[in-house]
Amino acid sequence: MKIFCVIYRIILPSVFLLFSGCEDDTAVTWDVGEWEFLGLEGKLVPELVLSDSFLYACAGKDGLFRLNLTGQVEWEYLGFADSTVFRELPYGVTSVYIDELSNVIFVGIATSSPNGIGLFRSEDGGLNWIPSDSGINTEQYPWSTDVQSLNSYSSPHKVILVGLTATIYRSLDGGLSWNLAWGNRDAGSLGINAIRFNIAEPNYIWAGGETGRFSAHALKSADNGETWDNLYPLPPLGPYGRDNALYDIAIDPLNVGTVYLSMLGLVIKTTDNGESWKKVLGWEYGIFRNWRIDINPNDPEELIVTGSRLYRTKDGGQSWEIIIPPEGRSELYALAINWVNRILYVSTSSPGNGIYKLKF
pTM of the predicted model, to two decimals? Predict the structure, then answer.
């Protein structure tokens, strides 16, 4: 059994916790600055997306917001607030994707209604929105328009993928029409929480989420989403066995076989394209959700994870550094990182919520 070492070092107003999953007791100090509050107090934001000089915030039932990072002080409201949404996550605005070649913005919404339309696009920078669900079958799966994730890559050819309830749809014409790429009637209320392309080999795609029976579910494709391999069920790693959930995915751009899954209570890693897995991050003293994980495209040994803490590894998960959330916040949720300028943006999920920035 591994022995985890925890070192506490208080530097007001931040508290750093450091531990190593290695057999030795070494840990590297993470010297960073202070958290900077950027606003959206009281809004629960499940996704943050950086595009050019803008930061987009999907704020659930409060709608979609955008902040110009070059000097804008106030967030710009782009629409989709819905006071009829009575639940929190994952309902309301859940995802956004910006096609930086065409400047088309796509927004995904979980409506909690079998008749709702959950996918829109704007061709004028967010001034006007039109439904973008042509080809999505709302009869085959009653809640198939509840969008949980959106992602795209433009090489070798343009493809957009949208993750819904028990389905993944694919568009090859810029979102004008969609075709079913994967679907499973037996998946129950499976939500596709994450879709990730390998930026170096974009034909390789991973997707995943959780079933209504609260078990983690992962898919992989080696042909740009044409066909998929089902990795369900994932191995029973950690104290919760197979009773788990997959929240996010990170793929090593230098090795398509190395993939990280952030889950309930742990982060797991494969180096053989999902044939075997090992735990690289886990808490033994409670159930903590590791909501988001991001990998440095220029140094894939460095990853950052949000959850009850902000976690960072610089050696592919062998050891981790930790910083607690800003004062008065109990959990970090959404994550967007400017790796070039070493700036990260997070949302907090409770209490109070809001968006924070950290230079690291």
Answer: 0.89
